[in-house]
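# nightly structure sweep
# worker-07 picked up a monomer target from the shared queue
# config: single-sequence mode, recycle default, output format = structure tokens
# input follows
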Amino acid sequence: MATIHDVAKLANVSIATVSRVTSNENNVNEKTKERVMKAMEELGYKPNSAARTLRMAQSNIIVVLMINIKNPFFAEFIRGIEDVAREAGYYLLIGSTDGEADKEKEYIDLILENRVDGVILTTAGIDVNSTIEKIHQNSPIVLAFDYIPDPDIPSISIDNESASRKITNHLISLGHRRIAHITGDMRRLQSQTRLSGYKQALYQHGIPVEESLIQEGGYQFEDGYLAAQKLLSFEKLPAAIYGGNDNVAIGALKAVQDAGLRVPEDIAVVGFDDVEMSSFTTPRLTTIHQPRFEIGKRAMEFLLKKIKQEKIDRPHIILEDHLVVRESCGEKLKGE
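# output follows
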């Protein structure tokens, strides 16, 4: 039996477009509509009228779309969302894209096909405008952990660029000059703004940016481990490694220690996010604290207002972060 996916593939459109055709919506051009109808006829596809009716009704489902559900960073964030959502009678559907464009597209198609009540999107990618616009046409959406200057897309985050400057400046204040940065996925706005903050801090102190000291990582322990191994292969070692998130920093810390070097005596290591594990490493990790529970809570409150079509006076909220200094960054160096 033919499915909506079969029709979308044959007509070379998204399943959301097929859904709009079967629902007799007006925002599909005639040529596309004819192509979809022809594909349905060839495949003998019959739309499910019960499913169509369900899509038009309130689902009480909120989709939370994130990069990687395995990342402990998201636990407090989801708890914050859930506290507000359950009180309002909504349930969460968690989607994990693993940073892959194909998976992200599948989830977007799912969102568009099923008309969920709302979407919370975390850490937007480079094609943020097209991704968010597609979702925004069908469901209320809120962006968390990133900011885009669109009054119709509420966002809640910290100032990633400023926070990145802050932790880089802390390393510089300790006397470190040769500071390496292992980024997150550079397709993500968050990684780009943190890299920008790192560079700004170096510029402000007259320290030249060495591109070889900037290594693209990701979001997992192994990303930090592998990137740090490359940095440790340089004839002149970095004095400090700044991981774009705590997972990356913890991976880098292990790579340094596996190489027979000491943290922080030989190389300082710092991270970003203040996940629970950062206070249990040896040595404990210096990092930037993000109020993840509060970000989740406020994101869901924003989304409820969008669902109810209530006016949002301040659609973009920047929450305060703070530097958490632990043992991994070292004491003030002399003569470096």
